[in-house]
Amino acid sequence: MSGSKQLHESCDGVGFWIVSTAHAFRQALECQLTHKGITFRQWEVLSLLSKDGEQPQSDLADKMGLEAQTLAGIIARMERDGWLQRKGCCSDRRRKLISATAKAKKIQQEMHECCELVRNQAVQGLGQKELLELKRVCELMRNNLAGDCPEPNLIPKIAETIHTQTPCKTFPLDEDTHISMDDTIAPTNSIRSRKP
């Protein structure tokens, strides 16, 4: 198999396990949310607002891993539908603070129930000891990956390491896929929900 083909394939290793599991979580959650008339991105916005309170649009974009322009369209539609409201920031009038409306807050319990249903489905067959170990391992890996990107000369060249990689199936991700490792599905104090 050519090196260029290997570069476009996922490795059957820890990264693949985590990403594919997060993808399965998202699909299951999106499925549940669809029945409630909520999209995954709407859930994500409302979850962050529930967890962190009103905040600038730029902060939401950073947390969601989206370009500001992409989020602007989502925010505009949610505002049009009565889910969000914007108000000027007292320290900088050019910045707008985004907050959830009373209409959005009314569905928080339903969103939470969607998350609980998916979470319970995912952990079937796992005991408390296994879940605590999973949490410990995920925290360790997040800490290992935290920090600034290392200088290029400190990273082994892909061409030098490609022969050690084990080829496996590709795992497609669309360009706006975002994986949050803050919790198994949602931030602890957030509304919980997602779609296929």
UniProtKB/TrEMBL annotation:
* Domain HTH marR-type, first and last residues per copy: 1-143
Q: Which Gene3D superfamilies match?
A: Winged helix-like DNA-binding domain superfamily/Winged helix DNA-binding domain
Record GO terms (molecular function): DNA binding; DNA-binding transcription factor activity
Which BP terms in the Gene Ontology apply to this protein? response to stress
Please indicate which superkingdom the organism of origin belongs to: Bacteria
| Keyword terms | DNA-binding, Transcription, Transcription regulation
Q: Which residues form the signal peptide?
A: none
Do you know which InterPro entries this protein is assigned to? HTH_MarR-typ, MarR/SlyA-like, Tscrpt_reg_MarR-type_CS, WH-like_DNA-bd_sf, WH_DNA-bd_sf
The record's Pfam families line, in alphabetical order, gives: MarR
Q: What is this protein called?
A: Transcriptional regulator SlyA
- Protein's organism: Rubinisphaera italica
